[in-house]
Amino acid sequence: MGVVGSLLTSPFCPKPAHCPTWTKLGYMCGIVGYVGKKDTIAVLMGGLKRQEYRGYDSAGIAILTEQGTIETAKKAGKLQALVDLLQTSPVSPGHTGIGHTRWATHGGPTDVNAHPHLGDGGKLALIHNGIIENFAEIKAELLAKGYEFESETDTAVAAVMLGDVYAQVGDLREAMRLVVNRLEGAFTLLAVHTDAPHLIVAARHNSPLVIGLGEGENFLGSDVAAFVEYTQRAAAVGQNQVVAITPDAVEVTDFDGNPVAIEEYEIAWDASASDKGGWSSFMAKEITENPDAVANTVRGRVVDGLVEVPELTELGDDILNGISRIILVACGTASYAGMVGAYAIEQWARIPVEVQLSHEFRYRDPVITPETLVISISQSGETMDTLMAVKYAREQGARTISVCNTQGATIPRESDAVVYTHAGPEVAVASTKAFVAQITALYLIGLHIARSKKTVDEKELRRLATDLQALPAKVTKVLETGEKIAQLAKWMSDTPSVLFLGRHVGYPIALEGALKLKELAYIHAEGFAAGELKHGPIALIDHGQPVFVIVPSPRGSALIHSKVVSNIQEIRARGARVIAIAEQGDAAVLPYADEVIQIPLADPMFEPILAVVPLQIFAMELADAKGLDVDQPRNLAKSVTVE
Ligand code: F6R
Q1: Alpha carbon distance 221, 437 (integer Å)
Q2: What contacts 373, CB < 8 A, 6 or more positions away?
Q3: pLDDT confidence band for 638 (50 / 70 / 90)
C-alpha cells in the first residue's frame, strides 16, 4: 500500500458515516471563507466579528496573496487581539481567504494553537471546527513519515495530512474528499492552496457550514452571520458533503464524489439585525427585542382569531390527534422554555407531556412508540446533545418537531417538521429573546393541538389567541421597570448568592433567573419550586439573603397564590430580603416583600414571558455593575456542539 493509502485507511472506521463513535462529537468555533474581489481581510474580519459568539479565545486568518503565497495572522485572546496584530503586522492583500475564531479543546488558547494551520510546506492553510477523534493515530503516522508539529491541536494534524495527500493527488477537492473519509469525529474544514488561488475547498461532518452566494464572489460560514452583510442568498451544506467555491461557481459533492444539488434560500434578516445598533451590549439590545421576538413568532400563526401553525397543518391532523405522549428535549435555557411549554401543552391538549434534558434522554432507554411526539427546542439548531436526542427519537420511531431559531440548521433538517421562532439573530452568548420566542412557539403548538383535538372550546381558544397577541405590548411595559431593576442590581453587586422561587409556570422562570445570574455575574444562584422550600432549601435563608419570588397570578389558582404568599412570609421571618415579581394589583404581597416588580395582567399561563424579563435585566445589570463582559461570559460559547 502506498503512502496515500496508508494514511487514508483505518481498520477501525472506514467512513465517518458508519463510524461507531459518530455520536461523541464536536465543539464550537466560527468559520468564514471568501473568494471574490472585495477587500478579503475586511470581509473575513467582519465575518469573524459577527461569529465571535461561537468562540473567543483566539482567532486567525490566512490570505492567498496577490504574490501567490499564503500569509497568516493569528493571536490568542478575543478578536480585538487579532485586530491589533494586523495593525502592527499587516497581512498582504488577496482575493481568497479563510478566518477562524476558536473555542479551545485540544491544546490551550495560544498563538501557536490558533487556526489556521499550515500544510504542504506552507502552501496550504486549513481551519477547523470540531474534534478529530482519531488525530493521535494519524499524527503518529505523520510523525513516522518525518513531519513535525509545533501545535498540539488535532487541526494541525488535519492540515499536514491534507498537505501530504494533496502532494500525492494534486487536486485539492480530491485530497479533501480522501482525507475526510479517513477522519473520525466532528469537523467542518476549510482549506486553501497556493496552486489554486481562487478556490476554497470545505467539508462538513457533524458541524455546521453554510454557503453565501454572491455575484462574482462566494462565501462560507459556520452561520449566515458570517456573510449576511454582503448577500441574503444562502445554501445549507448537508451532512458528509464537500464544497468547492470559486468566485463564479459552487460545487457540492458527497464524500464519495457524487454531485449534490444545492438548495438555495433567502436569509430572513439583514446585517443590521446582528449589529449592536448603538446599545452598550448585544445583551442589552436583545433584551429590548423581547417584544419583537414574541410578536414575530406569533405573526402569521393566528388566522381568523384562532391559532393555526402552518408547519403543523402540513404534518397532518391525523398524526397530531394520534399522539399519546409528548417528550420535550432541550438543554439549559431551552429546557426551561420546555418546562413552561409542558404545563401549557398538557393543560390545553390533554396529552401527557414531560421534559427531558437532551443529554439524559437517550441514555435512559426511554419508552418510545410511533404515537410519541418528541419536540426538540434549540435556538442554534446545532446543539449536539439535542441533535443526538432527535436522531435517537427518530430511530426509535417517534415523530419529531423542532422549535428552532436558526434557518437551515441541522436539528430542523433532522426533524419531521420545524416551527421556527422568529427572534432574529441572538448574538449575546446567554439566551434572552430566543427564550421568550421558544415559550411562545410552544404555546402556539399547544393551542394548535388543542384546537385539532377539540380539547379546549373555541371561545377559550379565541380568548387565548387574543391574549397571546397582546403579549408583546405588555413585554414592552415590563421593560420600563429596567431602571428600578438596575438600581437593585447595583445595590446587590457584592452579594455572594441569590435565590429564586417560583411555582407552576413560575418554577422554570426561577430556574432561568438563577441560570442567567450564574452565567453572567458568576454568582452562586439557585432556583427552587416554592413548594420545595420546607423540604430543605429554607436552611439557606439567613439574614439579608436576597430571594426573588415569582408570584403566581391570584386569578389563576388562588390556592397556589396564597401558598406562595405564605412562603414569602416564611422566608421573610428568617431574614430574607424578598424581591417579588407580581402582577399589577396583587395587594397580598405588598406587606411582605421588600421590593415589588409589577408585571401587567395576562393569562396566568402566559406570565413566564413577562416575569422572566426583569430577571434577565437583573442578571445583566449585576454583571455590568461587577464590570463583567455580559456578551461573552467566561468559559461559554453560544453554540454547544459538544456532547
Ligand atoms: C443559557 C443558554 C444555554 C442554551 C443551551 C441550549 O443562557 O443560552 O443554556 O439555552 O446551551 O442551546 P440551544 O438553544 O442553541 O440548543
Answers
A1: 25
A2: 320, 323, 325, 326, 327, 398, 399, 400, 401
A3: confident
Tell me the CA distances in angstroms from 177 to 59, 93, 153, 203, 245, one per residue in order.
Answer: 26, 29, 21, 8, 15
Ligand 1 pocket mutation pick from 333, 359, 635 by most atoms within 8 angstroms of CB? 333
On whether the CB atoms of residues 462 and 305 are closer than 8 A, the answer is yes
Pick from 162, 156, 125, 109: nearest CA to 44: 125
Phi-psi region of 405 (alpha: psi -120 to 50; beta: other; left: phi over 0): alpha
Query: Three-state secondary structure along 168-209?
Result: HHCCHHHHHHHHHCCCCEEEEEEEEECCCCCCEEEEEECCCC
Summarised one tens digit per residue, pLDDT across range 409-424 is: 889 989 999 999 999 9
> Distance (Å, rounded) from C-alpha 566 to C-alpha 584?
19
Phi, psi of 353 (to 5 degrees): -125, 135
- Spatial contact of 293 and 424, defined as CB atoms under 8 Å apart: yes
CA 432 to ligand 1: nearest atom:
7
- Residue partners of 94: CB distance under 8 A and separation at least 6: 40, 63, 64, 65, 66, 71, 197
Does the annotation mark 29 as catalytic?
A: yes
Helices 135-144 and 154-169, packing angle to 10 deg: 50
Q: How far is the CA of 333 from the centre of ligand 1 (A)?
A: 5
State the Cα–Cα distance between residues 405 and 426, nearest whole angstrom.
9
Residue 549 Cα to ligand 1 midpoint, Å, equals: 23
How far apart are alpha carbons 434 and 340 in whole angstroms?
14
**pLDDT band at 318, cuts 50/70/90?**
confident
For every residue of 332-377, DSSP letters joined together read HHHHHHHHHHHHHHHHHH---EEEEEHHHHGGG-----TTEEEEEE
Task: Return the minimum-mean-pLDDT range out of 457-471, 574-588, 627-641.
Answer: 627-641
The Cα 509–Cα 552 span in angstroms is 11
* Ligand 1 proximal residues by C-beta, below 6 Å: 331-334, 378-380, 383, 386, 430-431, 515, 519, 640
Give the helix/strand (H/E) hosting 612: helix 607-625
239 CA to centre of ligand 1 in angstroms = 23
Read off the amino acid at residue 581.
I
- How far is 33 from 44, CA to CA, in rounded Å? 7
Q: Which among 29, 99, 26 has a CA at the least distance from the CA of 638?
A: 29
Looking only at the bridges linking them, the beta strands covering 185-193 and 200-205 are antiparallel
3-state helix, strand, coil in the chain (%, to 5): 40, 20, 35
Alpha-carbon distance values, 49 to 2, 271, 368 (Å): 43, 12, 43
Partnered with residue 417 across adjacent β-strands are 401
Is it the case that residue 641 has pLDDT exceeding 70?
no
Ligand 1 centroid to residue 434 C-alpha, Å: 9
Active site residue 638: yes
Among protein residues, the one with the nearest Cα to ligand 1's atom 5 is 332
Place of cell 458508519: 18
The one catalytic residue among 29, 331, 433, 516: 29
pLDDT in tens, 394-407: 999 999 999 999 98
Nearest CA to ligand 1 atom 7: 430
Distance between CA atoms of 335 and 14, rounded to whole angstroms? 36
Q: What sign does the CA torsion over 598, 600, 604, 607 have?
A: negative
Q: Which three cell numbers stand for residue 335?
A: 429546557
